Amino acid sequence: MTLAAKYRYIVVEGPIGSGKTTLARRLAAHLGAATLLEDPDANPFLPGFYQDPARYALQVQLFFLFQRAHQVRELAQSDLFRGATVADFMLEKDPLFARMNLNDDELALYRQIYDHLRPQAPQPDLVIYLQAGAETLIERVRRRATRYERSIPDEYLLRLADTYMRFFLNYEGAPVLTVNSDNLNFVDSAQDFDLLLRRIDGMRGPREFFSQGT
After folding, report:
1. Which of 65, 106, 117 lies closest to 89 in space, CA to CA?
2. pLDDT in tens, the chain (214 residues)
3. Fold designation for 3-169
4. Domain ranges of the chain
């Protein structure tokens, strides 16, 4: 059985700087799969958020919630889902950012809207959770950053990485392959990418871990 037949819906997740979108694109190209990708550049409030988080947090969060819910709803209803799909987000992660960035009143409003909007999203056949050390994440964000991303505080990136780690520690919605990407380069190294493909194909349990040399 091919990977595309075995895993028809793969989600690649991780904090900013983990390389999730790049890996999602490469996996989709290798598998001949469709992609379902976030579009942060479409969020008009995001540049303002990195300058003044308290002022723009709710607008940013609701824009992303509407965007993600619409994408997931389309996936559930689309003929595209008859083939393989690789996504770089899961709807369940949206509340992570809300809890980090919203005050109590905003969070209460967000929860009402989230509960009202949330579609019945297909469960992934596999989640690839990319993690990396703090220095790696910070260096990657600074290197690839757009103009507005350069103002993201290091402390925010560290909190985000910790929030992701805690989320996936208790996540049981799908099999999870946790990948330590500190010493792996899935863009420039065919060997690293091939290693990952073999680990995906060899998944046997609901939780496995992959890093260079394992």
Report:
1. 65
2. 688 778 899 999 999 889 999 999 999 999 999 999 999 999 999 999 988 999 999 999 999 999 999 998 888 776 555 688 999 999 999 999 999 999 999 999 999 999 998 777 788 999 999 998 888 888 888 887 566 677 788 899 899 999 999 999 999 999 999 999 888 888 888 999 999 999 999 988 899 999 875 4
3. Rossmann fold (3.40.50)
4. 3-169
User: What's the rounded Cα separation, in Å, for the pair 203 and 209?
Assistant: 10
- CA distances, 191 to each of 131, 195, 197, 208, 213 (Å): 19, 6, 10, 20, 12
- Taking the C-alpha atoms of residue 19 and residue 150, their distance in angstroms, rounded to an integer, is 17
Which residues have a Cβ under 8 Å from the Cβ of 58 and sit 6 or more positions away?
A: 102, 106, 109, 110
Amino acid found at 163: T
Tokens of 89: 């987000």
The tokens 């050390």 sit on which residue?
Answer: 133
Say how far apart CA 135 and CA 127 lie, in whole Å: 24
